[in-house]
Design brief:
222 residues; mainly alpha; 8 helices
């Protein structure tokens, strides 16, 4: 069986599912940190707080918007399979619930140091998840799909665009939260650190992998 012109191997499917799960584990640790949501969920959470839209529906709306932006950017290079990114969000939501439940036994951070440790774990797991699942070229989350699209049209490295995109998402969530609620809302110190360092962490994971294996992975393959 083939997908995107490549054999849909067990390893490829494992990397895809495992990578998605690692990202949700990172989201769960960001919640535990008490320092703000992960960048990937900051806008949906802001929409939930402002307009009381159910978080699942808010996530769906956000992902659908990103797919439209990706379509506009790629034009004739946009593939029909990319519309399925919206529905991958359903799997992502299920994994998020599972991850939050699995780390439920860990007490929420009560101090800044503990919160920063959990934020660091969040950044690491999200970056590692991206490294596993993005190169499989199956169906990315729309957040990574639009990041790939921007990287392709600007001819910039994926990890560089990831940093810029996450910062833009966080700033948008901050403007929405402060503009409508008069407070930071979904954005905290952990959200900002995630926006600044997730992309950079992906870069160094890639470098370490290449050093030990002599192989390189394509994070812009769509």
């Amino acid at each position: 069986m083939q997908f995107s012109g490549e054999d849909l191997t067990i390893r490829r499917m494992f990397n895809y599912i495992f990578g998605l799960y690692l990202i949700t584990l990172g989201v769960a640790f960001s919640i535990k940190s008490g320092l703000g949501s992960a960048p990937v969920s900051s806008i949906p959470y802001a929409i939930n707080l402002i307009w009381l839209v159910e978080i699942g529906l808010a996530t769906f709306m956000f992902h659908a918007l990103l797919v439209i932006i990706e379509w506009v950017l790629l034009r004739e290079n946009f593939k029909k399979k990319h519309f399925l990114q919206v529905f991958v969000g359903v799997l992502f939501g299920a994994f998020t619930s599972l991850s939050v439940a699995l780390v439920g036994f860990i007490p929420s951070a009560e101090g800044l140091f503990t919160g920063l440790v959990m934020t660091a774990l969040s950044i690491f797991f999200i970056a590692l998840g991206l490294f596993f699942y993005v190169p499989t070229n199956i169906i990315p989350l729309s957040v990574e799909g639009v990041t790939q699209a921007i990287a392709i049209v600007t001819h910039k490295p994926f990890h560089t665009i990831k940093v810029y995109f996450d910062i833009t998402v966080v700033l948008t969530a901050l403007i929405l939260s402060y503009g409508f609620l008069g407070q930071l809302g979904s954005v905290g110190l952990g959200t900002i650190l995630g926006a600044l360092f997730i992309g950079t962490t992906v870069k160094y994971i890639h470098k370490i992998y290449a050093h030990f294996t002599g192989e390189s992975v394509n994070l812009k393959k769509m």
